[in-house]
Design goal:
By secondary structure, this protein is mainly beta. The chain contains 9 helices and 33 strands.
Length: 642
C-alpha cells in the first residue's frame, strides 16, 4: 500500500509539473513551424490565424482561421476554410507518447471538392503519403454549421451540402477510422446533374457501424423527416420519408409519401454495407403499397462492369391508372403530341432484365386491359421490350418496343389479332353501333427526336389493318358526338337514311409513312353489299393536319343504277379537332384502282399483309393490278385466319 501511495504522489508531481509548464507555454510562437510542417505533409500552403491553449486534465488547443490552399487549377484559392477548430486531449497518455483526443470540434467549416475537365480531384496532393508512428486516438468528432461544395467539370455535376450538426464516434486510432456511429440533424443538399436538379433535406439521420469506414462495416441505418425534390426531363419526383430503417440483416421498412400519395415498402434487401458498396449480388424482395395498388418484387441486383444491373420480376395484381396522382398536366398549346423532352437520360441510369406483370389494368377512361407482360432489357442506354403482350376487347396485342438514348431513336412493331369492331366499340364505350367485324392490324414505325412531337414528325413505316364482315347500324351514324369515322360513313353512304343497316363485307386500311407523312392512295377501303368507299390523301404528323378525300361508287347491279359518286366527303383540320364536310369539288371516280396501292405495302416487313390485300404486279411489267371487291375481301379473310 505504501508503494501505491508513493506512486500516486510521483504521478501527481509529474502532472502538476506538466500543467505548470503548459500554463507558461506560448504555443503561438510555434505557429510558423506548424504551418511549414503542414505544407510538407500536403504540398500546399496552410495558414493559421491564432493558436490558443486551455489547460486542464483534458487540455484544449484552439486554432482559428485555418486555411488549406486549393489545387492550382481550382475555382477558388482555398480548398478548406476552418474558422475555428477545438481539440481536447487527455494529459496523462501524452506522458507515454500516446495522443488521445477526447473531442474534436469544427465550427462552420467550408470545404470545396472539385474535379477538373481532365478528371483530377483537388483532394489529391502532390506528396507521398507516410503513416504516422504516433498513436492518435479520437473518441468523437463534432461538426457544426458544415458547408460542403462539390463540382465535377468533367461530368457536369455539382452539389452543395449544409448541415447544422454532425456527430461521429470513433473507436481507436484516427488513422484506422473505426467509426461506430454517425448522427446528423438538419442537413440539406442541393445538387445538379446536367439538366436534372434536386434538393435533399434530412431531418434526422443515424448510422451504426463497426470496423473501418473504408470497409463499409455499416450495420444499420435510420432516417426520418426527410424530403427529396428531383426534377429531370421526365416527371418531377417529390418524396417525403417519414421513416426508413435498414437493419443489419437487410430487413427494410419504409413509410412516406411520393407526389402526395402514401407509400410503404417492407421486405429484404441486403446489409446496408452491401447496398452502399454494391460489391456482390443481393436480393430485392419487397412488398409495396401506394397509389391505390399493391406490388411485389423478386429481383437480384448486382454491379456488372461498374453499373447496377437488376434481374427478375415485378408483379402488380391490379392497377387503376385513374388513382395515380402525378404532376399537373403541362400547359396545352393545342397540339396532340407533346413538345416536352423525353427522359432519354433515364435509360443510362441502370441496366436490367426485368419482366413487369400486371394482372388487370384500367385506364383513365375505364377501359380494362388484362394479362399484361412487359419484358424489359436495358443495357447502357439501349432498351428493348419484346414481346409486350396484353389482352383487350377480346383480342390480343403483341408489340416490340426499342429505345436508344444515344441517337434518341424509338421503334415500335405491333400485331393485333382476334379483335372485332363490335368488341372494340363496346370496350371503348361506343355502344352497339356495329356487330361482328373481325379485325387484325400491323404497325411498324420508327422515329427520332428529343420529344414525342419530334418523333412523330420524323416517323417512317406503315400501318395496315383489315376488317371482316360486319353490320353497321345506320341510325347511330349521325348521332351527336359520333366519331370522325362514323361521320364520314354517314355522309358518304347514300343508303344511310334508307336502310337500317349497312352490311360491310370487308374493310382495309394501308398507310405508308415517310418523314412524318402518312399517305393513302385509294388504300383506305370499305366494301359493302351496295357500294365501295375509298379514301385518298394524307395525315401530316409533323403539323398534325388532315387532308383526306373520300369517294363512293355503287356496286354493279345495285337498284337505281347507282354506279357513280353519291357524295364526295373531305376530312380536314387538326388531329385534335378534325372537320368533316362535303367536298363540292369532288368528282366521280371508280374503284378500278382498288388494291393497287395496297400492293405497295408488301415489303413493309409486316408479314406481307399489303400484298395479301392487293393483287401483285404482272410479271415483268411492274404495273399494279386492280383487286376486285370479292377478291379483296377473300384475301382479307385469309389473312385473318392465317
Amino acid at each position: 500500500m505504501k508503494i501505491l501511495k508513493i506512486a500516486a504522489v510521483v504521478v501527481a508531481v509529474i502532472v502538476v509539473g506538466v500543467v505548470a509548464v503548459l500554463m507558461t507555454f506560448n504555443v503561438d510562437q510555434y505557429k510558423g513551424m506548424i504551418e511549414e510542417q503542414a505544407k510538407v505533409a500536403t504540398g500546399r500552403n496552410v495558414t493559421i490565424g491564432d493558436i490558443d491553449l486551455a489547460v486542464s486534465l483534458t487540455p484544449a488547443i484552439v486554432l482559428t482561421d485555418v486555411k488549406l490552399a486549393n489545387a492550382p487549377w481550382g475555382s477558388r484559392p482555398e480548398m478548406v476554410i476552418l474558422p475555428r477548430v477545438e481539440v481536447h486531449t487527455q494529459l496523462i497518455p501524452l506522458l507515454f507518447g500516446t495522443i488521445n483526443l477526447t473531442e474534436l470540434t469544427a465550427e462552420n467549416p467550408d470545404i470545396l471538392l472539385e474535379i477538373d475537365k481532365q478528371g483530377r480531384g483537388n483532394w489529391v496532393f502532390d506528396v507521398a503519403s507516410e503513416g504516422s508512428s504516433t498513436p492518435l486516438n479520437v473518441s468523437g468528432v463534432s461538426v457544426n454549421g458544415l458547408k460542403l461544395g462539390y463540382r465535377d467539370a468533367q461530368a457536369g455535376r455539382s452539389a452543395d451540402v449544409t448541415a447544422k450538426a454532425i456527430a461521429v464516434n470513433i473507436d481507436g486510432a484516427l488513422q484506422d477510422m473505426n467509426i461506430s456511429s454517425v448522427a446528423a440533424k438538419t442537413a440539406e443538399a442541393v445538387f445538379k446533374n446536367g439538366q436534372a436538379t434536386g434538393k435533399l433535406a434530412v431531418g434526422a439521420f443515424e448510422m451504426k457501424a463497426k470496423g473501418k469506414i473504408a470497409d463499409l462495416g455499416i450495420t444499420s441505418l435510420n432516417v426520418a423527416d426527410t424530403t427529396l425534390n428531383y426534377k429531370s426531363a421526365g416527371a418531377p419526383l417529390d418524396l417525403v420519408v417519414s421513416g426508413l430503417s435498414i437493419a443489419e440483416d437487410g430487413k427494410v421498412n419504409f413509410a412516406g409519401k411520393m407526389s402526395g400519395e402514401n407509400v410503404t415498402a417492407n421486405g429484404t434487401l441486403a446489409p446496408i454495407a452491401v447496398l452502399v458498396a454494391m460489391n456482390k449480388a443481393f436480393p430485392a424482395k419487397l412488398e409495396m403499397t401506394g397509389y391505390g395498388l399493391t406490388a411485389s418484387s423478386d429481383l437480384t441486383v448486382e454491379m456488372v462492369k461498374g453499373r447496377p444491373f437488376a434481374k427478375g420480376t415485378i408483379a402488380i395484381p391490379e392497377l387503376d391508372v385513374a388513382k395515380f396522382g402525378g404532376a399537373a398536366p403541362a400547359k396545352s398549346d393545342g397540339r396532340m403530341f407533346s413538345a416536352e423532352p423525353l427522359p432519354w437520360d433515364g435509360l443510362n441510369a441502370v441496366d436490367a432484365d426485368v419482366t413487369l406483370k400486371i394482372g388487370k389494368m384500367t385506364n383513365a377512361s375505364g377501359v380494362e386491359f388484362a394479362d399484361i407482360s412487359i419484358p424489359v432489357k436495358a443495357n447502357r442506354g439501349r432498351m428493348t421490350a419484346a414481346p409486350v403482350t396484353l389482352a383487350v376487347a377480346g383480342g390480343t396485342v403483341s408489340a416490340d418496343v426499342g429505345l436508344n438514348a444515344s441517337d434518341k431513336t424509338m421503334t415500335l412493331k405491333v400485331q393485333g389479332k382476334g379483335f372485332s369492331a363490335e368488341g372494340l366499340a363496346k370496350t371503348f364505350k361506343k355502344g352497339d353501333v356495329i356487330t361482328q367485324g373481325p379485325i387484325d392490324m400491323a404497325l411498324d414505325v420508327r422515329g427520332t427526336g428529343n420529344s414525342m412531337r419530334d418523333v412523330m414528325a420524323s416517323l417512317d413505316g406503315s400501318l395496315i389493318a383489315g376488317m371482316g364482315e360486319s353490320r353497321i347500324r345506320n341510325d347511330a351514324l349521325s348521332v351527336p358526338g359520333a366519331g370522325v369515322i362514323l361521320q364520314v360513313l354517314n355522309m358518304a353512304n347514300p343508303f344511310a337514311n334508307k336502310d337500317p343497316y349497312t352490311v360491310a363485307r370487308c374493310g382495309v386500311a394501308n398507310f405508308q409513312i415517310a418523314d412524318g407523312i402518312a399517305q393513302s392512295n385509294q388504300s383506305v377501303v370499305l366494301v359493302t353489299d351496295k357500294m365501295s368507299i375509298t379514301s385518298t390523301g394524307q395525315i401530316d404528323l409533323r403539323n398534325e393536319r388532315l387532308d383526306l378525300n373520300v369517294r363512293t361508287q355503287g356496286a354493279s347491279g345495285v337498284a337505281g343504277g347507282l354506279n357513280q359518286l353519291a357524295q364526295a366527303v373531305k376530312v380536314t383540320g387538326s388531329l385534335s379537332s378534325p372537320s368533316v364536310g362535303v367536298d363540292q369539288a369532288g368528282v366521280v371516280k371508280g374503284v378500278a384502282g382498288l388494291g393497287s396501292a395496297l400492293a405497295k405495302g408488301g415489303g413493309s416487313g409486316l408479314g406481307g399483309i399489303g400484298a395479301l390485300f392487293g393483287i401483285g404486279s404482272k410479271s415483268g411489267t411492274g404495273t399494279a393490278q386492280a383487286a376486285p371487291a370479292d377478291d379483296l375481301c377473300a384475301r382479307a379473310r385469309a389473312y385473318r385466319k392465317g
